Amino acid sequence: MAQQLLMPKATAIWLVDNTALSFDQIAQFCKLHPLEVKAIADGEAAQGIKGLDPISTGQLTRDEIARAEGNPNHKLKLSEPKVRVPESKRRGPRYTPVSKRQDRPNAILWLVRNHPELKDAQISRLVGTTKSTIEQIRDRTHWNSANLAPMDPVTLGLCSQIDLDMEVEKAAKGRPLPTAAELGATLQPAQETEKLGFSYDRDDEKEKEIDADAVFAKLKSLKSTSRDDEDDDQF
């Protein structure tokens, strides 16, 4: 991987303020346009950015700067880094140990049943399998479908719980919101509930229909019976 300059604008600011290099030399070293370097020198650009010393970061030497100051045609070169950072490897299919490869169909079956929102590519990343195998297990056309049993890939050691949660979260973001039928809606639409009549009016009508004379007659009969009972007690 080609070496790159750290913080080009901050480095350009430091070179403008602390060296006699030309705008073209600074622009070539910092991968900027000469007019942008001129704007930095005039204070019209990169305001508020603190200059970065490339000598302290080990990206330039004083001898290299002095050589460029003495020769306007000299192009600044980055110093060789003291520490080599290994290049990041491209992430390929997950490697599965030979001892655990026989458990992959069971793990795939578990993922298909418990997380149907996962795509084939996500299952492939988690378990380290091929899309054709996933399709065979989905369609129950796998050669060992009769003997497969769903098993958690985390328990089998095929992936970590963090990786599984991340893939499930990614799949949930792209999934559309569930409909009312999927949620099992229990509330009736407002149009239907508005048509239903309330029983309050019916109760009021029943109360109005009660005859007042009949009520008073019943009360008189109750009083007369209570007096008769009192007279019987005196004798």
Short structural description:
This protein has 235 residues and is an all-alpha fold.
What does this structure look like?
The structure is a single chain. 52% of the residues lie in helices and 0% in strands. It has 235 residues and is mainly α. Among the domains are: 8-70, no CATH class; 98-174, no CATH class. α1 runs antiparallel to α2 and α5 (104-114) packs across α7 (131-138). Residues 192-204 have a biased composition (Basic and acidic residues). Residues 181-204 are annotated as: Disordered. InterPro entries: TrcR (IPR010421). This is DUF1013 domain-containing protein.
Record keyword descriptors for this entry.
0% strand, mainly alpha, DUF1013 domain-containing protein, TrcR
Instruction: State the total count of DSSP E strands.
Output: 0
The amount of helix comes to: 40-55%
State the shape. Answer: flat
Largest sheet: none
SSE sequence, one letter per element: HHHHHHHHHHHHH
Portion in strands: under 5%
What is the average of the pLDDT values?
77
Q: Structural class of the helix and strand makeup?
A: mainly alpha
Backbone CA Rg: 43 Å
| N- and C-termini, Cα separation | 124 Å
Count of separate DSSP helical elements: 13
As residue ranges, the low-confidence spans are: none
